[in-house]
Amino acid sequence: MTSNFSLHDLTALGEGFTTEFKRSMPSNLGREICAFANATGGVILIGVTDDGEIVGIANHNKLKSQVQSIARSADPPIAVEMDSVEGVLCITIPEQHGKPYSFGGKYYIREGASSQQMSRDEIREFFFKEGLIRFDKTPCQDFKIDRDLTPEVWARFAARARIPEGMDPIVALENLHLLEGGIMTHAGAWLLAKDITRYTLTAGVTCAVLRGTTNTHIIDLKNFTGDICSIYDDCIAYMQAKLNTALIPHAHGRDERLELPEDALREAMVNAIAHRDYRSTAKVQVHIFYDRLEIVTPGGLPAGMREEDLGIRSVPRNPLLFGMFHRMGMVEQIGSGIRRIRQECRDYGVEEPVIEVSDNWVVTTFKRQVEHGGQITPHVTEQVPYRYPTIPEQVTAQVKIDKSFNEKSNDNNDLQIITKKLKDLTAQVTAQVTAQVVLYCREPRATKEIMGILELKHWKTFRSNYLQPLLDDGWLEMTVPDKPTSSKQKYRLTAKGRKLLTELAD
């Protein structure tokens, strides 16, 4: 354990890829120790409940003897360290160098917050050779703590990773195994980057719209190179903007329906970013053709995976990064990605994607819902292709909002008052638009609902100009804060916003 170790810091972070809680001495302790030894190491806390409550445990000396006996019975024996802290027995499994390890003749590996059994051959193949450290775990010498770990970068990461407020960044990063010996790992650098290519040149993602069905003519091309989570968000926004959207009328208005299921695209994008080979000289690529959307992942399948295993089991190529994605809510269920993609497509009424595997690539292809003549398939009633606005969206939205509120004098008065409150937040025209958002979010609203009232189509513009400033300034909050990218995410007024509306009513 490091000198910065704090039991309360570790329990506050919760269970994850490198941490396991046990209320009492478990019967399967050998399995857990073995799984950590085959991954990147970790800590098992005996005397802590699943929800992080410290209850303690007795007879530490006897338990320490039992743990040592269990660790020595692994093949080969596993080195462990033990400490008693506030009544909790803390078992630290350092990163081992004799992989793979077995216990009771079986092999285990850490995936997300759980331990999974693997065969010896799969373990050998998974690591390519015994003792190999995964690239996401290797030190990133180009990341300089004093230069790159700025307050802005830390605040963004801490919110996504659910770091308790006020926790020291260095302590948190060490306990998450993103920082080792004062040097950031590549996984940590990718998560904290302002420009990911500064640390790994080909870690960005390229998205393109191509004419027809071949890659001969590029209509639009974007390279995304922020931190790895922002890259994911930008890719999803790009696909939402470039794919067709249908407007489905119903008794209460109309709903938007993307031609391909958004949740399936999100899952496929997470898989591409989390499981790609970051040692490859190629990038993840998203290609949108007339008849299909392709997500191309460099590196082929991870070691230990076969094509017939797709949808049945999961072997993460970058386990530390994958574990952080699970912590951030970007991965909901370990090992279920391909199954979820296929089920989402079936539920949506579209064809399941085709997944092609080679030694160097994995290509996931979604068939677009177009027929001869470019019309969307019959079950969607109206096709609305994306077009870039010809004038700034905030200006057109402002004209529409002014017109709307001139017809409602009371709301118009409220709008002007709220605008004054918000005028220091952004430029004046944007403040008036965000005032409309404050009024509209008296009830929880989805992103598409808010964009609809503003008549905005470009999600990235909406996020950067309106939504994020309101979140940062404490006027709005997420209904699902633990999963910022959840498809069920909505936004509502904070106590600060409700107080303002109460003052207006009085």
Largest sheet: 6 strands, mixed
Q: Order of strands in the sheet with the most strands?
A: 11-10-14-15-17-16
Count of beta strands:
21
Q: Which percent range describes the beta-strand content?
A: 15-25%
Q: Helical proportion? A: 25-40%
CATH architecture of the largest domain: 2-Layer Sandwich
Shape assignment: globular
Head-to-tail CA distance between termini: 57 Å
Q: Figure out the total of helices.
A: 18
Q: What is the domain tally? A: 3
Q: Pairing-aware structural class of the strands and helices?
A: alpha+beta
State the low-pLDDT regions, or none.
372-409, 425-429
Q: What is the CATH C level class of the largest domain, in words?
A: Alpha Beta
* Mean pLDDT metric: 82
CATH topology of the largest domain: Heat Shock Protein 90
Q: Rounded to an integer, what's the Rg over CA atoms?
A: 25 Å
Any overview of this molecule?
- This protein has 506 residues and is of the alpha+beta class.
- It has 3 domains: 7-129, Schlafen, AAA domain (Methyltransferase, Cobalt-precorrin-4 Transmethylase, Domain 2, 2-Layer Sandwich), CATH 3.30.950.30; 205-301 and 330-384, Heat Shock Protein 90; 393-505, Winged helix-like DNA-binding domain superfamily/Winged helix DNA-binding domain (Arc Repressor Mutant, subunit A).
- Helices cover 38% and strands 19% of the residues.
- It is built from 18 helices and 21 strands.
- It has helices at 7-13, 29-38, 60-72, 120-126, 145-148, 151-161, 169-175, 186-192, 228-242, 262-275, 319-327, 337-348, 393-406, 409-422, 428-440, 447-454, 459-472, 495-505; strands at residues 19-22, 42-46, 81-85, 88-93, 102-103, 106-111, 114-118, 179-180, 183-184, 205-210, 218-224, 245-250, 253-258, 284-288, 292-298, 354-357, 361-367, 383-384, 445-446, 476-478, 490-493.
- The strands form 6 sheets. The chain has a 6-stranded mixed sheet, with helices on one face. A 4-stranded mixed sheet has the order 1-2-4-3, sandwiched between helices.
- Strand 1, helix 2 (29-38) and strand 2 form a beta-alpha-beta unit.
- It is globular and about 70 Å long.
